[in-house]
Design brief:
The chain is α/β, with parallel strands linked by helices. The chain contains 8 helices and 7 strands, in the order E-H-E-H-E-H-E-H-E-H-E-H-H-H-E. The protein has helices spanning 16-27, 39-49, 64-78, 105-133, 153-173, 190-194, 197-205, 215-226, and strands at 7-11, 31-36, 54-58, 83-86, 136-141, 177-184, 237-240. A 7-stranded parallel β-sheet has the order 3-2-1-4-5-6-7, sandwiched between helices. Helix 1 packs across helix 8 (215-226) and helix 3 (64-78) packs parallel to helix 4. The relative contact order is 0.15. The mean pLDDT is 94.
């Protein structure tokens, strides 16, 4: 029970990675505050958990008013948040694989906001309380695409920004709070079904373990970084990538 008596806020909890993290944290004793942009997906996660110690609210991580409502509700229910896991991210336009010169500015802006806004909003609201209590854990989701990947300019740039923001937060919020990121490679989610086979093969060719990752692989890493076992780790970008390198 590594997270017994801890309270964790998980955004994107309706998607495969967010749901896997929620289930893993619940098994380790955490109370959960969950959000997702899809009310249906969020309800499915809550139903699957079958726990009483949950607060759930549909919210978009890019909408300040909705995130404020989510956090207000979570604090009213639990009194505090000990752990933040910012799962929300991805590409906010049709066709994740697109050459830079065929992209447009609005799609680029939307992708940056989609990957960064939730991290900013949750930290700004919840970090002061964590500091006051002398303890906090923040886990963000970057990607191996942060190193640069053809036809993934907006997504790769956004995930590089997540890694940079993670490091800045670790510096600014120390010593009370640890802030780390996970850099997945290709993970078995619905996004894989929409990807070009050529892009999938490029990921696999660069992966030493020669397989696509599972959401549970990310959940296990998130649990470690959120637990006391990682109390002397902060400011890192942990590859959960089957051996794919993530160094710029």
């Amino acid at each position: 029970m590594q997270l017994e008596a801890k309270i964790a806020l998980i955004t994107g909890a309706g998607g495969p990675m967010g749901a896997a993290i929620a289930f893993r944290f619940a098994r380790e004793g955490a109370a959960l505050a969950l959000s997702d942009i899809s009310a249906g997906r969020l309800a499915a996660t809550v139903a699957g958990l079958g726990l009483a110690n949950i607060f759930a609210d549909r919210a978009s991580a890019t909408e300040e008013a909705e995130m404020e409502r989510l956090i207000d509700g979570a604090l009213a229910r639990f009194g505090r948040i000990d752990i933040i896991v910012n799962v929300v991210g991805g590409v906010r336009f049709a066709g994740a694989s697109r050459p830079l010169l065929e992209s447009n500015l609005q799609a680029f802006r939307d992708t940056m906001e989609f990957n960064l806004a939730g991290i900013f909003l949750t930290a700004r609201r919840l970090v002061p309380g964590m500091r006051e209590r002398g303890h906090g854990r923040i886990v963000n989701i970057s990607s191996v695409a942060m190193t640069g990947l053809a036809n993934m300019a907006a997504y790769g740039a956004a995930k590089a920004a997540v890694a940079s923001l993670t490091r800045t937060m670790a510096i600014e919020f120390a010593p009370e709070i640890t802030v780390n990121a996970i850099a997945p490679s290709l993970i078995n989610t619905g996004a894989v079904e929409r990807m070009d086979r050529e892009l999938i093969n490029r990921y696999l060719d660069a992966t030493l373990l020669r397989r696509i990752g599972e959401p549970e692989d990310i959940a296990n890493a998130a649990l470690f970084l959120a637990s006391d076992e990682a109390s002397f780790i902060t400011g890192i970008n942990l590859p959960v990538s089957g051996g794919m390198q993530t160094t710029l």
